[in-house]
Amino acid sequence: MLVMSWSAKATAHGAKINYETTQAIKIDAAFDNGDPMSNAQVTVYSPQDPSTPWLQGTTDEKGSFVFAPDRSQPGEWAVQVRQAGHGDLITISMGEDQSATENTADSQVMSIQSKSGSFTPVQIVVMAIAVIWGFVGTALYFSQGTKQAK
């Protein structure tokens, strides 16, 4: 039995989205490797109707998108950014008291990182063991079949 193996760096296809709250909300979307999600589809859902898009648009070439939520609708605003099957969904809390403090502050910068495409070291080790065990199990299965046939 010949087993060939090689190693290559695997790049996950998760996304990282940052946002800055001023009078409007600025979304900065990038892939895990730091490349901006240019011309990605953006869908914003209001707290009053989270199943119907409140606003749709696309990011610019730098992965940025700006929108001004309706401050009369406090609650969790959901923002989904997608491009070529990759993307993420974040929620932004907008409260009645929060909108008053945001108007007095210059800006507030927050960052949310998706873990959808990132694996912890423990997960990577478990996946590697599972793959190796799969190869060993397959080899043992086929080697038993040839012994019984004789």
From TrEMBL:
SUPFAM superfamilies: Cna protein B-type domain. The chain crosses the membrane at residues 122-142. It comes from the Bacteria. Keywords: Membrane, Transmembrane, Transmembrane helix. This is Carboxypeptidase regulatory-like domain-containing protein. It comes from Coleofasciculus chthonoplastes PCC 7420. The lineage of its organism: Bacteria, Bacillati, Cyanobacteriota, Cyanophyceae, Coleofasciculales.
